[in-house]
């Protein structure tokens, strides 16, 4: 049985609120719309590249669940019923914590696999590429704040170790 249930959101100085969707700060969301043309990396190495150029997708919903989704039919259902483009295991916890404490937030996801799809590339290598691309978008986002924000880090290379 599939169950979609609202969650209880507790915020300082407010009554408990039942929420199904966790809102992202509208100002941050509007600023993020300027990132649609950010160039993303297509290759993990000189010989290991995605078949298509990756892109920043703006305006779809993400979902968080305690599952690893590897089912094309369920992926299509989530998209058609809820306009959900990604499923992860942690974004909602970050957003809920931010909302509870009155801190504006936004989530950038690097998508590394296609639930239920037959991938040409291994998920392990795509995870690295997705992380690098998500970081690049986040750095560009911070840069949009100009002088009022901390200087963004220049990221030329990110090395992820299997055993950290």
TrEMBL record:
The GO molecular function terms of this record are: catalytic activity
InterPro entries per record: Nucleoside_phosphorylase_d (IPR000845), Nucleoside_phosphorylase_sf (IPR035994)
Q: Specify the domain of life of the species encoding this protein.
A: Eukaryota
Any Pfam family from its record, for instance, is PNP_UDP_1
Nucleoside phosphorylase domain segment(s): 21-118
* One of the GO biological process terms: nucleoside metabolic process
Name of this protein: Nucleoside phosphorylase domain-containing protein
